[in-house]
């Protein structure tokens, strides 16, 4: 299914060939007709915006949104397992699922990366793909709800992904994902703040005072 493949491409780090294939991607999702009108329109707007925006600006926006915020991470298991041991086992299980269906992901990207998951879904019959997506729909929904606060067109892409799931996610599950990631983000912010506030100095003249203990 090309719609899942296109959505995967739109959620990866922007490259020149993505811009070059913009019209082809719009034609593919339009012809396949898996997305409802509003979601199709959001994807079409995103692609047109991608065509009209400088590549370096697209790349900077992507990094600023997805690589610098745990709350917007596109690694699905990070939102439910964090760095716990459970995440490792979930990764192993997901990689095995990919391999059973003929997808052999490289070690360059983790199995729970949303674009890679969507690429896997593109290989399946539509009902099976939607069933698998339903298992992650609460995470994707949490992502697009968060993204909507950033006034970013990526919110429309993420919402389009969520709309393809076989079932609506449980509201409590969505709120649990958001609460867990918000708590983790606050912890990270506290650590960063502590490092910034500490005046760390190294060298033989350091005594902990504001000025060096030797030399002038």
Task: Give the topology.
Elements: H1 2-10, H2 16-20, H3 22-32, H4 37-52, H5 55-67, H6 78-81, H7 85-100, H8 114-121, H9 126-134, H10 137-148, H11 154-163, H12 171-197
Keywords:
mainly alpha
Q: Largest sheet, if any?
A: none
How many separate structural domains? 1
Mean pLDDT: 83
Beginning-to-end CA distance, first to last residue: 70 Å
- Rg calc: 21 Å
Unreliable runs: 187-204, 206-213
Give me the secondary-structure category: mainly alpha
| Percent range of helical residues | 55-70%
Strand content: under 5%
- How many helices? The count is 12
SSE string, helices as H and strands as E = HHHHHHHHHHHH
Bulk shape: globular
Structure write-up:
- The chain is an all-alpha fold.
- It has one domain (2-197).
- Helices cover 65% and strands 0% of the residues.
- The chain has twelve helices and no strands.
- The longest helix has 27 residues, at 171-197.
- The N and C termini lie far apart (70 Å).
